[in-house]
Amino acid sequence: MFNQLSKIANSAIGAVDNNLRKVTDTGKICDTCQKGIHTGIDLGLAHSGYESCCMKDCGAVFCTNCVESYVKLGKNMEVPEGYRSVSKDGKALGTCVCHKKCVPILMEFDRRINVDKQQKYIEKYLATDDESPIPKQFYYFPSSDVNKDNTERKAFRFLSALGDVAEIVGMKYIKRALEASYLLWHGSSFLQYLISEELLRFMSPLMQHFKYLGIYKPHDFLTLYYLACKHELDVKSDPLFEMKAHSKGQLGVIDDACPLELLDWIGEFLGPASYLYTSRMSKPHQANEWSEWYLSKLVRRDGWTVISCYNSPIKLADGTYRPGFAVLCRDERSVIHRPASINPNPLQCTRKEVLICIKGSTDILDWGINLNETPEEINYYSGPYGQTCVEGKVHRGIAQGARAILENYGVRECIKSLVERGYTVRVVGHSLGAATAAVMTVELLNGFRELYGGKKLLPDIRGIGFGVPAMLTSEISNALQEGHPYPTFTSVINREDIVPRIRLQTLLRLCEEMRDFEDTAKIMYEKDMQSYKKWLISIGEKPMASTKQDDFFPTSSSETKDKVSSPRPSETTTEESAKSETATETLVKSVVPPELLQVHLCVPGKIVYFYKCHGLDRASLVTHEHPFLHRIKLSIDRNIADHKYEEHHSAIISVRRQYNLMLGAMGRNADGTNTSSTIFRVACPFQNIVDEEILKSKPFSGAQEADALKLGSLAGPFRSCNVCELATNWAYIAHSSATTARVTHCCRACGDVVCAICAPAGDIVQGEGVNRQETLGDKRISIPAIGIFERERVCIPCYNQSYFF
Questions:
Q1: Which residue of 519, 616, 623, 767 has the fewest C-beta atoms within 10 A of its own C-beta?
Q2: Rounded CA gap, 603 and 478, in Å?
Q3: What is the pTM of this model?
């Protein structure tokens, strides 16, 4: 027995010796860390595994630990024929390209290909004289794999057939497993089943910033929910709050009503901002060639000709992320078609224009741009001749994406050749595309200033962005406001869109507000839990066991007492305030790069801000100094929805119709001609959901006054529904003041306070039983007579009388 164990031990020692010998047998040294490379056991003396550069005459070798030194070959980077090293038998060697020497060579090679392609399209477009028609675009791309019966489709059919058999036999568990396999095959589709695509897209950066601030625990998100209810109450208890903030004389307000000329100019580029969204086709037609073909069909009515289209974002070999973009042209030869009911005769284009459309965030690669938020320096030469140098900083990822489009795809040379022929340039985008459009506008103007040497007027280059993030410092943002009636760059912000407000400084203010609101949120949570337990008893269910508050609000009893009995902010001593500020700063500075704290980025150019007053859409003209752009007003339903392109589209059309109503009321049409239209009625003012008369007539008792001090505006009292005369929360389980504020509405027709039962809009209320819900009907209507063109919530009595509106 002992001899057998001895033999096993000796053989194991021999194997270790052999592996140790392999450490020095490879003879390769990593070019980055200068350590030996082996394929055996790593004892800290060398690294196992290596990659070699595939470029001819390079010979660089890297260990697998030094991944930052090389780029793996893939669909975004290929080595052209003649550049790659091969073995004696002609087999390609190496699977990567080194950053130090070879990546720049390939980047230049790709740049030349893209520039030549862009120039070829331009020459084709400009080949004919001014009197000849624009050559018709023949975009047809026969793709052999579209109808090919490939392995993937065979597998799908097999899974589907097995699922049908399992359903017939009754093997439900097998059927579920097959459905899961089908979903997992697609990968991204499985994620869409788990979480809303919009939430995944917009909450990712927000959660990253919250993590910086230490907000990631369950009670933090309960506090955010109740704080959002309070923010809704602030608006509903003062219906004129937004209108007063946008009146003339207020900070950051240029004009309380956006000029009609500027609004019409923005509306002209409302459609182009969505070109790349709508031209992206689904599988199996997701290839860029299909997008280019479909885009050429979509833009024909507006007279545009597609020069180039790159619909999908990619990561370049040097690590730069480039968003999707397209370049389009039209001139005096172009014909613009409108629906016959609006304009039966085609319109001849009267000017030469080149349009650059940039796509917003739709792909995981776009977050490579969004999250590279370290600011870098940028200069902008403002003035008619570019005579004034303005220094500032810009979001690095967005700046790199804009420069990648201009330099690596020949767009700068394309624009230069078109401007020399008298073309104006417009750059448009939404979300990430809007921010990239702002940087591209700056870069193009700077390029022409350098070309002209400050001795010639700069060309007409302007940008328009919808849902623009904060991405430039105030100095350059102010300089981009130049120009009349159209500024160099125009930003469009829709209501409580959270994207223009996501920056560390505003999130820090929200964090402080949230921490101050924690005690109130805890009171709201306790009331809602009590209401839920009473409801369980009312339907004959056993109330659930008492839940420890520590599960959601994990503070000890002594800390809670200290918080409740602590003085209000006005009574806090200066020394205590300084201590709390120091603690907050220490928390943030420990996890946030200092350059993000020191630089305050803002929304660029003049800003057209859409808001609502008594249910009607309004638009004002503001600057980045407006207070609404420096705070986050939480909304359960609006923060993400307001960022969508469709919401911007709806808001601007609604405001334009408001102008039509106003001009009609003054006896003139939008084109200035006279009309005999009657004066339209105005919207009824919304009621304050807090009953101030009761508040004044019945002062609080001692206990009620203490609760009022804790709850603030959430203390109420709230108005009852004007139809059923019950509390507006009577159809819901939770009865806290926060929930009441959220489910209380105002009828858009009469302005009265109503509940969801008496003004149904597809609301979901609790049914009879646990986990049973009922969906109410949808009686929303439009009221064009007062300027409400979308279907909005009205009470049932107004709905019954809507024929007379």
A1: 767
A2: 10
A3: 0.78
Q: What percent of the chain has pLDDT over 90?
A: 27
Specify whether the CB–CB gap between 608 and 778 falls below 8 A.
Answer: no
Question: What's the token pair of residue 101?
Answer: 């020497």
Write down the mean pLDDT value for the chain: 75
DSSP conformational letter for 361: S
Reported as type and span, the H/E element at residue 227 is helix 218-236
The two structure tokens encoding residue 530: 């009590």
The pLDDT, as a whole number, for residue 425 is: 96
Distance CA 499, CA 507 (A): 12
Residue written as tokens 């299909």?
290
CB 680 within 8 A of CB 786: yes
Asked if 490 contacts 464 with a C-beta cutoff of 8 angstroms, the reply is yes
Residue 194 has pLDDT above 60, yes or no: no
**Of 4, 510, 728, 608, which Cα lies nearest the Cα of 270?**
608
Q: Which residues pair with 348 in a beta bridge?
A: 335
Q: How far is CA 630 from CA 84, 468, 501, in A?
A: 53, 14, 7
DSSP 53-92: B-BTTT--EEETT-GGGEEE-BTTB-PPTTTB-B-TTS-B
Contacts of 614 (CB under 8 A, 6+ apart): 239, 683, 684, 685, 686, 751
Q: Which of 266, 268, 269, 250 is nearest to 258 (CA)?
A: 266
Query: How far is residue 8's CA from residue 728's CA, in Å, rounded to a whole number?
Result: 81
Q: Tell me the per-residue pLDDT of 702-746, one tens digit each, with 9 for 90 and over.
A: 545 555 545 556 777 889 999 999 999 888 888 888 888 888 999
What's the rounded mean pLDDT across residues 750-762?
A: 93
Tokens representing residue 408 in the block = 């690596």
Average pLDDT in the 630-652 region?
84
DSSP string, 657-674: HHHHHHHHHTTB-TTS-B
Residues 116 and 410: their CA atoms lie apart, in Å, by: 8
Residue with tokens 């975004």: 76
Report DSSP letters for 656-725, one per residue: HHHHHHHHHHTTB-TTS-B--PPPPPPPPPPPPSB-HHHHHHS---HHHHHHHHHHGGGG-PBPPPTTT-
How far apart (Å, rounded) are the C-alpha atoms in residues 508 and 516? 13
pLDDT in tens, 240-255: 888 889 988 899 999 9
If DSSP codes are grouped into helix, strand and coil, which group holds residue 315? strand
Residue type, 472: L
Residue 338, Cβ neighbours under 10 Å: how many?
13
Angle at which helices 411-419 and 396-408 pack, to 10 degrees?
70
d(CA 689, CA 595) in angstroms, rounded, equals 44
Among candidates 466, 472, 199, which has minimal Cα distance to 359?
466
Paired tokens of 412: 């700068």
Owner of token pair 């806290």: 736
- Check residue 21 and give its pLDDT: 44
Q: How far apart are CA 265 and CA 270, in angstroms?
A: 9
- What whole-number distance in Å separates Cα of residue 469 and Cα of residue 433? 10
Identify the three-state secondary structure at position 160.
Answer: helix
Cβ neighbour number for residue 550 with a 10 Å cutoff: 11
pLDDT over 70 (residue 607): yes
Please say whether the beta carbons of 111 and 318 come within 8 A.
no
> What value does the mean pLDDT take over residues 788-795?
90
**In 3D, which of 667, 673, 566, 654 has the Cα closest to residue 615?**
654
pLDDT digits (tens, 9 = 90+) for 40-67: 444 444 455 677 777 777 777 777 667 6
Distance CA 32, CA 69 (A): 7
Q: Where are the beta strands (DSSP E) in 272-342?
A: 305-310, 314-315, 321-322, 325-330, 335-336
